[in-house]
Amino acid sequence: MTDPASALPALELPLGPLHRELGARMGPFAGYQMPIQYPAGLKAEHLHTRAAAGLFDVSHMGQVRVRARDGTFASLARDIEGALPVDLEGWPSGQQRYSVLLNEQGGIEDDLMLVLWLQDAAGPEIRMVVNASNRANDLAQLRARCPGLIIEEVDAALIALQGPQAERVLAALDPRAALPVFMQARELTLEGVRCFATRSGYTGEDGYEISVPIAAAEAVVRRLLADPLVQPVGLGARDTLRLEAGLPLHGNDISPSVSPIEAGLGFAIAKSRRAGGAKAGGFPGASRVLAELASGPPRRLLGFVSEGGVPIRAHAAVIDQADHAIGEVTSGTISPSLGKAVLLALIERHALDSGGPLRAVVRDKRLALMKTALPFVEKRYRR
Q: What is the DSSP string of 4-38?
């Protein structure tokens, strides 16, 4: 049966006309018409981001502001800690952290980026970015779990400037861009407009994600693109960049059936929420998550490379030396940086314990896999 939502026309990004002016090939993704790649092509865009600075339009992502109805930090912390495995105590204002929205079975409904912001006159709040395709589900779950909170979407563009020259480019518009380090937030003035920026991204490179009022978005993007260090980059290269960095994609590598421990995301569970912690448990799915932290998960999301030059895509079976299926590829590509196949795969624990060789099935071929530590390409965040 066809999903009724898939029959709806894709929404236009605020910067859609600019992308077409720049020659972007557009395509539907998460309900929006997105720039897939520009005339330079995916590989050139990918390598330019690694060498200089790539500009991405990620306005399809959900931007959310969360605050307590009574305006207090205590209520904000109580409700958010009941919904997510976080601990707001001692969390500095302007600090960004990664978290996961879990279901009662401990699976990942979505992964989220959160900033605690205590510098607004309206009172303490959390600024949140959620995945586009999960936005409606995320908001419904958070509102159901947190009736004492006001949860509102932010109508703004979201752009990402990524690469080793990102700081130089953005600091030319506002010198304060050089002040935050990785996973810190700051308000900047770009083209005369106040914007909210975090030093973060989805490429493994240094860079920023910048929330820009829609009315100013085109002027800000044109100003950034006027710098010869900056080139526009589409969704295709965003995917190859994040995979080289070993960053999971919801809907591929993580899903409502995959736990954060299986996915190697145990760091998203605050220490105080673990067994023996001051606030142990108390979040959806805690029983599974805490049990897997203690005894290990039944599966693990791992990185592999293959030297054959054949791309190994999602859903390819992974087999052991006896040709038994013991896992599945969740994301895979030919790495533009390394020139070889890189992939993430969810593998059963018993197969890892046996230590035998693993292979991926691609059509009629059995391609040898070599387990490797993540990331595939070194992350270069400014810490």
A: GGGGSPPEEPTTHHHHHHTTPEEEEETTEEEEEE-
